Amino acid sequence: MWRSCLRLRHAGRRLLNPPRGALTASVRPGPNPLIPARAYAPPTERKRFYQNVSITQGEGGFEINLDHRKLKTPQAKLFTVPSEALAIAVATEWDSQQDTIKFYTMHLTTLCNTSLDNPTQRNKDQLIRAAVKFLDTDTICYRVEEPATLVELQKNEWDPIMEWAEKRYDVEIGSSTSIMGPSIPARTREVLVSHLASYNMWALQGIEFVVTQLKSLVLTLGLMDLHLTVEQAVLLSRLEEEYQIQKWGNIEWAHEYELQELRARTAAGTLFVHLCSESTTVKHKLLQQ
């Protein structure tokens, strides 16, 4: 996970050099239209206007510099992140852009903007409640009654992760073939609310983002606990769709594009949560290798 964050050009030395000016760049990237409505609607693309990307440490955390300009959020706040590792990951997004800046690919930047600006003005309790509410419509809690092959596939693939979650958190979740979904016990909600309360606000923004991508709190918890890989979680969230593709065939390029996009967003959200919830220090000698 960490190696993908440490690939800025020139072995990262340039990241630690302070900018020579105090001009600011109020660049306003956001998510693509497929991610939650709470996030910003970005310009689709823009010609790259900077050559070098660096990070510096300020009083409020780590800042991103585009040439000699400090990056800002859509609400014109100084773009400052709490950890050096997250700053390097965001800087990598900016540094990897080619002649054209494709804002819809910069999911870490978007998540940081959302955390800094909090455009919907939600507090920690509201973020937690929003994530837990997904239990009512959790992808792996809804089962079909036919065809028999899909019933068996859901049982074989979804039951193990459901059993893991129930054992891991000592709760009952269950599944249902009813359109009303399963009846989630109040204690289950209370336990999961208490668990999510252990995360900080930044990490909770990432958790809700991943839950929205997968349409599953259970799969998201599996990712956060490193019980599932991103590839496994995404395929489990698309189990019925993949079944239909196997049966009826693939729409040329469209299904593969959707799959890769979902993997990218889920991976970015998962990385964001871990970088925001762990005490991480990047050793400078790693940047110099």
UniProtKB/TrEMBL annotation:
<dbReference type="GO" id="GO:0033615">
    <property type="term" value="P:mitochondrial proton-transporting ATP synthase complex assembly"/>
</dbReference>
<dbReference type="GO" id="GO:0005743">
    <property type="term" value="C:mitochondrial inner membrane"/>
</dbReference>
<dbReference type="Pfam" id="PF07542">
    <property type="entry name" value="ATP12"/>
</dbReference>
<keyword id="KW-0999">Mitochondrion inner membrane</keyword>
<comment type="function">
    <text>Plays a role in the assembly of the F1 component of the mitochondrial ATP synthase (ATPase).</text>
</comment>
<comment type="similarity">
    <text>Belongs to the ATP12 family.</text>
</comment>
<comment type="subunit">
    <text>Interacts with ATP5F1B; involved in the assembly of the F1 component of the mitochondrial ATP synthase (ATPase). Interacts with FMC1.</text>
</comment>
<dbReference type="InterPro" id="IPR023335">
    <property type="entry name" value="ATP12_ortho_dom_sf"/>
</dbReference>
<keyword id="KW-0809">Transit peptide</keyword>
<protein>
    <recommendedName>
        <fullName>ATP synthase mitochondrial F1 complex assembly factor 2</fullName>
    </recommendedName>
</protein>
<keyword id="KW-0472">Membrane</keyword>
<dbReference type="InterPro" id="IPR011419">
    <property type="entry name" value="ATP12_ATP_synth-F1-assembly"/>
</dbReference>
<keyword id="KW-0496">Mitochondrion</keyword>
<dbReference type="InterPro" id="IPR042272">
    <property type="entry name" value="ATP12_ATP_synth-F1-assembly_N"/>
</dbReference>
<keyword id="KW-0143">Chaperone</keyword>
